[in-house]
Design goal:
The chain has one domain: Alpha/Beta hydrolase fold, catalytic domain (Rossmann fold), CATH 3.40.50.1820. It has nine helices and eleven strands. The chain has an eleven-stranded mixed β-sheet with strand order 2-1-4-3-5-6-7-8-11-9-10, with helices on both faces. 43% of the residues are buried.
């Protein structure tokens, strides 16, 4: 009996001292990976469609005009719209609004770049419990696509149309793009997902979340893949910023929580608009490689640039090393392992062979 007990204790000890492995630890399922029922039907009534609006933002002058679902013909004649130019439609995230900082900031920069700037207001349909808001983004996408299809009849060129969605807005933009193609038979030019929402979408198929089939070119900037974002490389080009899990803090590099990391996708995109060719990503063979910063030794070295000048022919997963302070970019230095922000910072703290508390 004693020998059996001894063997059991020895076996338990071996289990508890086993080396850490992914098979032992498991892989992250992510925050709210599943929201049962969130992809069921949701209806926006004719009465409520008046709350679905698109704002034309001049940006440079601060002039704004808002048009609801029933005013598309008036929207097409807005004096600040010129359909010979490229058009950007920004779709904000959960509880976001064109009145908030994110929309006004991105509108200003795109206007400076010569774009028509449109801001979608989904606030009425997101001011509720998140899983229900996620459900309503499907009809929001359908009805917004109808507005854009009507604008196409007035001269909007889908090959000059770019959608940008932050968080839940990334998924909403996907539904817009999907429905636009159903209505017109043509894909839009570009869809950019700024850490598109993972909660309620992470385990769904491509018909129910953002996917590279949504547009001619889909790029993803991932900054919080296990929290508010999603890990799957669903775009043509997928940038995993500092591995995609968490970002270094602006004040103290160890402090950037889930929301801070999630929103970093937006500030990095803003910086990339201001600093083209400055965010250079290094291709990886898998998302796990990007998580663990194991892409530096991959051969051959393949890079791509985050931003409007991404090489659309270089598809795949890219690890993007950044600094912890705006404007974040490291340029070509960022593809050298010795310059990796996290690795170099932690190595510097422990460069001495022996440390002593005096």
């Amino acid at each position: 009996m004693v020998s059996i007990l001894w063997l059991c204790l020895l076996w338990i000890d071996n289990v508890w001292t086993e080396n850490s492995t992914k098979e032992l630890e498991g892989y992250p399922s992510g925050y709210l990976a599943d929201c049962p029922g969130s992809n069921k039907e949701a209806i926006i009534t004719k009465k409520s469609l008046k709350y679905l609006t698109i704002t034309v933002d001049n940006g440079l002058t601060g002039r704004r005009r808002k048009y609801n679902y029933y005013e598309t013909s008036e929207l097409a004649r807005d004096p600040d719209l010129d359909f010979s130019k490229k058009t950007m439609l920004y779709v904000g995230g959960y509880l976001d609004s064109p009145s908030f900082m994110f929309a006004s900031t991105i509108a200003l920069i795109y206007r400076e770049l010569g774009y028509n700037t449109l801001l979608l207001d989904t606030n009425t349909f997101t001011t509720m419990e998140y899983p229900r808001a996620a459900r309503f983004m499907r009809p929001v996408g359908k009805h917004t696509a109808k507005m854009l299809a009507d604008l196409t009849q007035e001269g909007l060129d889908p090959k000059k149309l770019e959608l940008i969605g932050l968080s839940l807005g990334g998924q909403t933009a996907s539904f817009i793009a999907k429905n636009y193609e159903l209505l017109t038979g043509v894909k839009i030019s570009r869809l950019t997902g700024l850490d598109p929402a993972g909660p309620c979408f992470r385990n769904l198929g491509p018909e129910d979340r953002i996917d590279k089939s949504d547009a001619d070119f889909v790029d993803i900037i991932a900054t919080n893949i296990d929290g508010y974002g999603m890990a799957a490389p669903v775009g043509h080009v997928n940038f995993y910023v500092n591995g995609g899990e968490y970002q270094p803090g602006d004040v103290l590099w160890t402090l950037c929580n889930i929301l801070c990391s999630h929103i970093r996708s937006f500030t990095i995109w803003i910086s990339a608009l201001r600093n083209p060719h400055s965010f250079v990503g290094l291709q990886c063979d898998s998302v796990q490689q990007a998580r663990e910063k194991l892409c530096y030794d991959r051969e051959p070295i393949v890079t791509n640039v985050l931003g409007l000048n991404s090489d659309r022919s270089r598809h795949g997963i890219f690890y993007l090393n950044t600094d912890n302070k705006y404007p974040y970019f490291l340029g070509e230095k960022g593809i050298i392992k010795e310059n990796d922000f996290y690795l170099s910072q932690t190595k510097a703290l422990n460069k001495q062979n022996v440390i002593k508390m005096k």
